[in-house]
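Tokens for chain A. Residues wanted.
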């Protein structure tokens, strides 16, 4: 059947503020602008719902998962309920393609919807580390090893029937192959996480924003935008700040975000006497403005897929420091578009902070080059077009043929 648009449902675990969720918001917006009809489905409401709906994109919120697999009857009933709800949405919106984000075990439930339908299912992998970690289990920690084994087995079996994997970086693709074993070349497509460049290039009153934060125009302001969890390495940035604060007392670091390690990080900050220099701003809706008012951006992650926050900072044309981990080294050309340091090394991070502050001309040149790199390779418009090309390629193998009205 010929239709004028590809109907795509983006399924994400929640609509909290986070990198994966921002991918969904940006992708849905630009798929709509490129001629698709996107729908966003989630299992937990959050602050990103309003900006998505304001674009005229439907958002469907299904009840959160509650049953544990140890309570098998309740667990099975809940899985059947979720599957039924998803099937109803497929029928309601005449969905052609489902793309999942951050779902883990529910990836397999979504995959089961293919059977008996002309439906494409793509799993998106946002990270180069797939194994379940202890912090993923709020209780029953002894289930970690059995769940790891089950997940790996299910992903290997599911790889036979899923339409394809979408990896957000070449390193993520490599990790998928290592995790799942050999897969056909066309089974994994690399599409870089990207940003709406225009959103991060607005004129702002830097002085006014700094005054609101109690900062002076002459202060050296560094920002990090990341959820407070082990992966993001905030503790090493706090330690690095303590190593340079005597020689650079006008250094201020903005911690933009929130998460499970908030109290631990605040305690570390206080123990090192850095309360004046490290500012916990919480979850913010004005991230583009905060980045524009910053002098530098730092991402001290221990691992990544491809950080949205890093690309956002580069689009904002501010100098960046990041750790040399998967995904990140595909975005940054060391010494040209930013500085890379080893992960988990506070001393090297402190050295990079000294370096970038002490050579403003070099820092500005890197910032300009970084912005140009994002515009060329990591724009949201390119990301949407790459997705559409993938969807069309697979849809052409079925009886569905997209109409020529899909814009290029």
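Reply:
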């Amino acid at each position: 059947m010929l239709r004028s648009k590809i109907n795509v449902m983006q399924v994400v675990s929640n609509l909290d503020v986070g990198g994966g969720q921002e991918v969904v918001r940006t992708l849905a917006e630009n798929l709509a602008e490129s001629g698709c009809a996107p729908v966003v489905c989630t299992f937990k409401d959050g602050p990103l719902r309003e900006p998505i709906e304001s674009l005229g994109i439907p958002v469907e919120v299904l009840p959160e998962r509650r049953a544990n697999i140890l309570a098998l009857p309740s667990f099975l009933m809940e899985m059947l309920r979720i599957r039924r709800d998803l099937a109803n949405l497929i029928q309601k919106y005449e969905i052609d393609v489902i793309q999942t984000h951050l779902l883990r075990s529910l990836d397999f439930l979504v995959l089961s919807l293919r059977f008996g339908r002309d439906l494409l299912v793509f799993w998106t992998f946002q990270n180069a580390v797939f194994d379940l970690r202890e912090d993923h289990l709020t209780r029953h920690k002894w289930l970690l090893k059995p769940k790891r084994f089950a997940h790996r087995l299910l992903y290997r079996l599911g790889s036979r029937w899923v339409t394809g994997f979408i990896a957000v970086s070449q390193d993520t693709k490599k990790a998928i192959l290592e995790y799942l074993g050999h897969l056909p070349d066309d089974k994994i497509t690399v599409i870089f996480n990207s940003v709406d460049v225009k959103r991060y290039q607005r004129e702002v009153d830097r002085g006014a924003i700094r005054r609101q934060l109690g900062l002076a125009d002459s202060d050296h302001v560094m920002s990090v935008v990341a959820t407070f969890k082990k992966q993001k390495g905030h503790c090493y940035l706090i330690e690095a700040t303590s190593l340079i604060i005597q020689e650079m007392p006008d250094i201020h670091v903005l911690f933009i975000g929130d998460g499970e390690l908030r109290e631990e990080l605040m305690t570390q900050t206080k123990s090192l006497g850095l309360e004046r220099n490290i500012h916990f701003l919480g979850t913010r809706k004005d991230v583009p403005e905060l980045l524009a008012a910053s002098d530098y951006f730092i991402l001290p992650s221990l691992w990544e897929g491809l950080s949205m926050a890093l690309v956002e900072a580069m689009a904002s044309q501010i100098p960046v420091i990041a750790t040399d981990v998967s995904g990140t080294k595909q975005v940054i050309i060391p010494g040209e578009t930013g500085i890379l340091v080893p992960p988990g090394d506070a001393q090297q991070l402190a050295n990079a902070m000294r370096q970038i502050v002490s050579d403003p001309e070099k820092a500005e040149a890197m910032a300009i080059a970084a912005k140009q790199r994002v515009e060329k390779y990591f724009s949201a418009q390119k990301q949407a077009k790459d997705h559409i090309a993938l969807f069309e390629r697979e849809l052409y193998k079925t009886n569905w043929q997209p109409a020529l009205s899909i814009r290029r």
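The radius of gyration is 22 Å. Residues 291 and 313 are 7 Å apart (CA to CA).
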